[in-house]
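Worked example 2:
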Amino acid sequence: MTPFQSLRDYEIFVYTLPQQFPSIERSTLTVARRGRLYAELSGELTFAGGLRLSIYERLSWDTGPLLIEGYSYEAWRGSDKLYWYDSQPHPHDPTLASTDPHHKHVPPDIKHNRIPAPSLTFSAPNLPFLIREAELLPDD
């Protein structure tokens, strides 16, 4: 997916996600402008079987197209955290170098067990990938 040229374009994209992805049962995502060239996306997407994605993105557009400056994406089923993605750099972990700083935390030791996340980027929307990934999770 190509980068968005304005915050308004991204807002339209975010607020029409349930129409684009019928698997989304509920969205509480909101885009909040925090300054002249800065905004935040936050909220949740809910799917069947109690699955939900908790989403946070820091957005800017001061040098051209809209960029994601940082993010946190968490997958939950009930009170169980299944996995999460974040953009916190781990420069001393050579296993993550191929996608630094993008990585995924996975079980069994979810806090410390990290794998590369080649599908995530700062320059294009990550939400379509995350939604498709959630759609593939088995129902519990």
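The mean pLDDT is 93. The chain has three helices and eight strands.
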